[in-house]
Specification:
This protein has 286 residues and is an alpha/beta fold. The chain is built from nine helices and nine strands. The longest helix is centred in the middle third of the chain and has 28 residues, at 138-165.
Length: 286
């Protein structure tokens, strides 16, 4: 039997009606499934479901480009904050995989936190609704969703390993002194302006000047540091110095230590500790 939005905890203490959170998530790996998981498609399903079941005070929470095993997603965290502030009574998702692909964390949020906060949780396509009888298959579905994430991670790592072993660059950001070939982004070409600065750094260092002295000299010459040079040329920037016009000795030292300037392709410097976390480990030199 279908239930409507009428629940005892829908009313705010200071008047008004609590929000219904319509949560959508999409990661790059989900592109393999075509348009069925697109944010637009998810929104259509959730909006239609809310309208048919009497949920009027709705708000979308959308994380586009975030893995299901990562729960530090901006809008997911915003939703949790609104739940803690007593602003939400119901959370609706397209299916359990959109909520997450880590069965331990999914179980914690849906079976512990939401129950504690009195949150009604609905996964439309999976027929999950904690206001009705418990779906005993849901824990197994969550495990299957995590298996999917683990399997996808293995496949991606295999592709990257094959690409890296063939001599292709794996990093998305080129070192200072290089830029991506416009015709073939997988290739690096010399960035003449920055490359001349790199050559000057090596000449000065081999001439006996220290890294901090080199940094002071480059700053005095008003030469753009790497982050500024990247930004001016529309290239990805790893990090921005709090004083962007100032060269740092550490920046000069990193340039001197990079083997990429010898013409070598250097891959597999790090690896992720687990597909569930972004924590990286530096690998020993082989």
């Amino acid at each position: 039997m279908l239930q409507t939005a009428e629940k005892s905890n829908d009313k705010l203490i200071n008047g008004g009606v609590k929000k219904t959170a319509l949560y959508c998530r999409l990661s790059r790996d989900d592109d393999l499934d075509g348009d069925s998981n697109s944010i637009t498609h998810q929104k259509e399903i959730l909006k239609d479901y809310a309208a048919k079941h009497g949920y009027t005070n709705t708000e979308f929470y959308v994380d586009d480009g975030y893995s299901g095993v990562n729960f530090e997603r901006p809008d997911f965290q915003r939703m949790l904050n609104d739940i803690e502030n007593g602003e939400i009574s119901t959370v609706i998702v397209k299916d359990m995989s959109r909520f997450g692909r880590n069965y331990v964390m999914v179980g914690y949020y849906t079976e512990v936190l939401f129950e504690k906060e009195g949150i009604r949780f609905i996964a439309v396509n999976d027929g999950v609704d904690n206001a009705t009888e418990t779906d005993e298959f849901t824990p197994f579905r969550n495990i299957i969703n995590e298996w999917y994430a683990r399997d996808t991670s293995k496949k991606v790592r295999a592709v990257l390993k094959a690409k890296g072993m063939s001599g292709k660059h794996l990093t998305c950001v080129t070192p200072y002194g290089y830029k991506k070939d416009e015709k073939d982004p997988a290739k690096w070409v010399i960035d003449d302006e920055a490359a001349e600065v790199v050559r000057e750094i090596y000449r000065l260092y081999l001439g006996g000047m220290g890294t901090y002295e080199i940094a002071k000299l480059l700053t005095a010459r008003e030469i753009d540091p790497p982050s500024v040079h990247f930004a001016k040329n529309g290239m990805p920037v790893r990090s921005v110095n709090s004083r962007p016009k100032i060269w740092l000795g550490t920046t000069v030292n990193k340039i001197l230590e990079r083997e990429d300037y010898t013409g070598c392709t250097v891959n597999f410097k790090t690896k992720k500790k687990s597909y569930k976390t972004k924590e990286q480990l530096f690998l020993p030199r082989g």
